[in-house]
């Protein structure tokens, strides 16, 4: 009987040790799962907030004013040459759009005066056209009267540009 009590005690000891090791494994597995879940949540939330911050600066919708196409005589010795031009003005805001629309005849006249004293060979390359666009923008932005602000024209784009 002493042997049977010793065998029973020996069987009970490993079972108790096995239960403790199972509990330890369960606790460690739980800690690992909670850590992995926390890391996954941090990663996903961190990824979502970065694009929201990057998308914060919203670009304003551009405002364009179309100028009716016009034709000007160019300075040339020999055959008469013409420039047929259509352009669009990009303005900064609605107030600028209203001011440009109100004073369009005077602004068109300024553009015609700039273009009418050109020679045809100065309107050929892309650089020539870019320079002319900047000159037109500068001249059109010049205040119409001493007490008036500039027109707020941010850019000039050509829709039609034909030299004949």
Automatic annotation (TrEMBL):
Cell location: Cell inner membrane; Cell membrane
UniProt keywords, alphabetically: Cell inner membrane, Cell membrane, Cell projection, Chemotaxis, Cilium, Flagellar rotation, Flagellum, Membrane, Transmembrane, Transmembrane helix
InterPro entries cross-referenced by the UniProt entry: FliL
Domain of life: Bacteria
Chief location category: membrane
Membrane topology: Single-pass membrane protein
Transmembrane spans: 23-45
Entry-linked PANTHER family: FLAGELLAR PROTEIN FLIL
Listed name of the protein: Flagellar protein FliL
Species this protein is from: Variovorax dokdonensis
Record lineage: Bacteria, Pseudomonadati, Pseudomonadota, Betaproteobacteria, Burkholderiales
Gene from which this protein is expressed: fliL
């Amino acid at each position: 009987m002493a042997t049977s009590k010793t065998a029973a005690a020996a069987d009970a000891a490993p079972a108790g040790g096995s239960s403790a090791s199972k509990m330890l494994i369960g606790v460690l597995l739980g800690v690992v799962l909670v850590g992995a879940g926390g890391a996954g949540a941090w990663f996903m939330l961190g990824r979502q907030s970065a694009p929201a911050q990057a998308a914060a600066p919203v670009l304003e919708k551009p405002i364009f004013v179309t100028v009716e196409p016009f034709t000007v005589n160019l300075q040339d010795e020999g055959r008469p040459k013409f420039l047929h031009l259509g352009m669009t003005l990009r303005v900064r805001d609605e107030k600028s759009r209203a001011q440009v629309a109100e004073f369009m005849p005077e602004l068109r006249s300024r553009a015609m005066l700039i273009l009418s004293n050109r020679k045809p060979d100065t309107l050929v390359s892309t650089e020539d056209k870019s320079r002319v666009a900047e000159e037109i923008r500068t001249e059109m932005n010049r205040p119409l009267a001493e007490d008036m602000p500039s027109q707020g024209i941010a850019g000039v784009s050509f829709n039609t540009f034909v030299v004949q």
